[in-house]
Design brief:
By secondary structure, the chain is α+β, with helices and mostly antiparallel strands. Helices cover 38% and strands 26% of the residues. It contains 4 helices and 7 strands. The longest helix is centred in the first third of the chain and has 54 residues.
Length: 200
């Protein structure tokens, strides 16, 4: 009887310990998801700025003559008016701070720098370096993302482990079109990065 009582007591202790472990794991998981939601929001915000300010649309502002008239059929390069971005390398660094390098290379670099892998098609780049000076094509007419609003408080973490993560987030385009977007992330030696184009 004493032996049976000890077995029951041990089983009860194990059961309690398991409940504690599960409770702590659940709390840790919720905390980790909350932290990742904040990180994802920050990455999306920075990525949106990188895309809209540097890569999509007309690119960075330039020092142009007062009488300049853009000719979208002919490139017109002028020095970039920026103290932060002074080279192609600095532009790539900004992209790869938020995106996987492979994503940036496939999505942003072809139009920005004329880097098209495995293609003989000539691309007039948005940017170029001329004698050490970063220049932008002021006659460039590229894609634009202006008008997209990211609703960060709608972020839901749908997958999260040590290597990959996925979220859903609602967006509004030009105050009219509502959409739910799924974004994937990958953890690298440099930290978490967005693993797909921000805009389709």
């Amino acid at each position: 009887m004493k032996l049976l009582h000890n077995h029951r007591r041990a089983a009860a202790v194990v059961s309690v310990l398991m409940c504690v472990v599960l409770l702590l794991s659940g709390c840790g998981g919720k905390k980790r998801q909350a932290e990742f939601r904040e990180l994802a929001a920050l990455l999306i915000q920075r990525a949106d700025e990188v895309c809209s300010d540097i890569y999509l649309g007309g690119g960075l502002s330039a020092t142009v003559p007062d009488d300049f008239v853009p000719d979208y059929g002919s490139p017109s390069y002028f020095p970039v008016d920026s103290e932060r971005y002074t080279s192609v390398a600095s532009l790539k660094e900004a992209a790869e701070d938020v995106f996987l390098p492979s994503v940036a290379a496939q999505w942003l670099y072809p139009d920005a720098f004329g880097e098209v892998s495995g293609s003989d098609v000539a691309v007039v780049p948005l940017y170029r370096e001329n004698e050490g000076v970063l220049e932008v094509n002021a006659s460039y007419n590229g894609d634009t993302v202006y008008g997209t609003e990211w609703l960060y408080d709608t972020i839901t973490v749908t997958e999260l482990n040590d290597e990959t993560a996925s979220i859903t987030i609602d967006t509004i385009y030009r105050d009219e079109t509502e959409n739910t977007v799924t974004l994937t992330f990958r953890h690298t030696e440099a930290g978490w990065r967005i693993a797909q184009p921000l805009y389709q």
